Amino acid sequence: MTEQMLYHGADYNPDQWLGHPDILARDLALMRQAHINVVTLGIFAWPTLEPTEGDYQLDWMAQVIDNLYQNGVQVALCTPSGARPAWLAQAYPEVRRVDANRVRQLFGMRQNHCYTSPIYRQKVRLLNQQLARRFGSHPGVILWHISNEFGGECHCPLCQAAFRGWLRQKYTTLDAVNAAWNSKFWGHDYTDWEQIESPAPHGENALHGLKLDWRRFVSHQTLDFYKWETAAIREIVPQAKFTTNMMYHFDGLDYFKFAKEMDIACWDSYPTWHKPGEPEAETALDTALMHDLMYSIKHKPFWLMESTPSTTNWQPISKVKKPGMQLLSSLQAVAHGADAVLYFQWRQSRGAFEKFHGAVVGHDGRADNRVFVETAAVGRALESLQAVSGSKKPQQAAIVLDWENKWAMEEAQGPRNAGLGYWQELQRHYNGLARAGITVDFVNEDSDLAGYKLVVAPMLYLLREDFAATLRAFVAQGGTLVVTYWSGVVNETDLCWLGDTPHHLTDLLGLRRTEIDALYDGETRRCTAVGAEMPPAATGSILCEVAALAGATPLMQYAEDFYKGSPAVTRHPFGAGKAYYLATRFEEGFYTTFYEKICAGLFPPAWPTPLPQGVHATRRAGYIFLQNFTTQPATVGALTIPPYGTQLLEAETHTSLCQCSFAPADAGVQGASGQVN
Ligand code: GLA
Ligand code: ZN
User: Fold this and answer.
1) Could you say which of 148, 308, 544, 607 would form a disulfide bridge with 517 (CB–CB 3.0 to 4.6 Å)?
2) Which of 50, 130, 128, 34 is CA-nearest to residue 86?
């Protein structure tokens, strides 16, 4: 694979069209016309590759790969383990997943296998090795796309045994398990390993340590399955490169751990653009957070593995992308570090679940409709931006996003079982920083913080002692830290820290938590500024933490309820640095002002002067992307950025390098060619 290359492509499922050689031939011509240079191939093609057990039929795929290669299209070859053939489910029931209620699923749907099942693993291994032997050294195969959107959990007897094995390895003795989980509560002590079962609606749900360990195990076992898949291929193709597609706000798997086993991170992005009441610039920030997360987990360019060129078909309302949005959203991914923009899917399926999902080539098969023409425009734009590929992003601020913390917090049975909104909390800090033009990375409790000047730790409920030490060292050496309410509450097995909290951070923050009040949805508490550093007023919501000061300077305070007068925002020096504390969740606008103020002088923002509403600046190595997420032209200095337009500039001199936009009128430009035969 060429590291210095921007890829443009799509999921290609020719197995759905093998009976139509004319369509397969037309695909090649259309791909050229759409400036496609890569496809992910055969993601659900298992029954076509192995129609009956052990009968491998790879010739059709060989032909497809050769044809693509001859037409300048490279291949990310998929392992089709995301959906299993009916014969496999019929012959070997153990491959079918058992749900938490202990009912085994029937055949159907996808991504619902037992990742422990030796038979499933063996069948996947045999097929992967067939693919590796036949195609592993093909010059057109540049990447292996392992399975599809891993997720979910299996509670079958095989998984129960594996869970117990994992626990034995972690804890060695049952005494250690019982202590870690505080099993004495309700007298749930375990006296035999066989008594331990995964959480169930009709079984154990009270031991938070068990629930947390189960989620760790599920993530571990899924990753183990992924590694099993890659190992099968690597044995035959040592130089093979691997990825697997990740999902928006997906809770089930620790993506930081996955990233270590992947050569390239990638994700599937389906934002709800054009939602009434949500300006596109807001949707853009929500998407940008995920792009930056994908960049962060490997600290290098990622792939946008799936996006729709027009519409999805699974959202409550699946709107089409308006003219120009496909180009804008594709270049947004590139601005945030993507080296590839791919679509789901190349050719629209004729029947079944996704027959109305957008695709580059629709049921009409034409190349003169808006979707196809806009896709080709993205292809041309990517060709003109090749120099950006491979480039890195500056290291400035980091937000702690830790999956184990999230798992523990959500199971905790605490002040707000109605929902804590961890992603929403992260998003507010992210938006505040992004609006201030600061580049944001995400880190977890295993990360090294060297190189960052600002670290934000929102709702760090599960705080490991070693990470608390990392945070302390970071501040002591001059870093700026922001800690929020509901931090430093429990240890790594969800046992409450004893003594003053936030555990291990009270001297750093110059305060201790005394109480935490939960608010109903829509309920708020007014806060007012103390001094002139913060906005004059703000509103707290969700959780209001009450703290006793021990050296910190209050910058804002609560203005109502029995905690009126107690601190809502504080600052405290520690070593060469300082730590801020936010006692509640403020409204969105607070974070913009807060981060503007505390970041002044810390780093150069991506753009030196305030930008018009809806225009975002993003920095990638020597480039600045200015993107207009509004339907009106935007003026930035001497530049006019068209609606949904992107302006690329040289970072130091602000010299304009190119402008990419797609006006509705452009939709007709390419139209003359019509259907390509
Ligand atoms: C997911 C899947 C694809 C397809 C798309 C539709 O991302 O990976 O196979 O179903 O959704 O949006
Ligand atoms: Zn199982």
Assistant:
1) 544
2) 50
Q: What is the pLDDT of residue 2?
A: 60
pLDDT recorded at residue 665: 59
Ligand at minimal distance from the CA of 116 is: 2
Under the banding of pLDDT at 50, 70 and 90, the label for residue 670 is very low
User: Which is the closest atom of ligand 1 to the Cα of 270?
Assistant: 12
Task: Tell me yes or no: is domain 397-599 CATH 3.40.50.11090.
Answer: no
Q: How confident is the model at residue 488 (pLDDT cuts 50, 70, 90)?
A: very high
* Amino acid 569: pLDDT: 98
The yes-or-no verdict on residue 306 having pLDDT over 60 is yes
Distance 189 CA to ligand 1 centre (A): 43
Under DSSP, the state recorded for 194 is G
Q: pLDDT tens across 18-41, in order? A: 999 999 999 999 999 999 999 999
pLDDT tens, residue by residue, 36-56 = 999 999 999 999 999 999 999
From 50, 153, 229, 306, the catalytic residue: 306
Nearest alpha carbon to residue 599 among 394, 438, 398, 430: 438
Walk across the sheet containing 266-268 and list its strands.
Answer: 242-243, 141-146, 74-79, 38-41, 7-12, 338-343, 302-306, 266-268, 245-246
The ligand that comes nearest to the alpha carbon of residue 96 is: 2
- For 541-568, b where at least 16 C-beta lie within 10 A, e where not — what string? bbbbbbbebeebbbbbbbbeeebeebbb
Residues of the chain with CATH 3.20.20.80: 7-151+240-388
**What distance in Å separates the CA atoms of residue 645 and residue 641, rounded to the nearest whole number?**
6
Rounded to the nearest angstrom, the distance between the alpha carbon of 455 and the centre of ligand 1 is 34
Q: Whose CA is nearest to atom 4 of ligand 1?
A: 344
| Predicted pLDDT at 663 | 78
pLDDT digits (tens, 9 = 90+) for 233-250: 999 999 999 999 999 999
Residue 345, preceding bond cis, omega within 30 degrees? yes
Task: Give the Å distance between the CA of 250 and the centre of ligand 1.
Answer: 14
Q: Is 467 in the pocket of ligand 1 (CB under 6 A)?
A: no
Other beta carbons within 10 angstroms of residue 52's beta carbon come to: 11
Mean pLDDT, the chain, rounded, equals: 96
Task: State the span(s) of the chain assigned CATH 3.40.50.880.
Answer: 397-599
Which regions of 154-254 does DSSP assign to beta strands (E)? 242-243, 245-246
Judge if the beta carbon of residue 312 lies within 6 A of ligand 1: yes
Q: Active-site residue 204, yes or no?
A: no
Distance 268 CA to ligand 1 centre (A): 8
What are the C-alpha distances in Å from 573 to residues 10, 35, 254, 577, 580?
51, 55, 33, 6, 9
* Domain 7-151+240-388, CATH homologous superfamily name and number: Glycosidases (3.20.20.80)
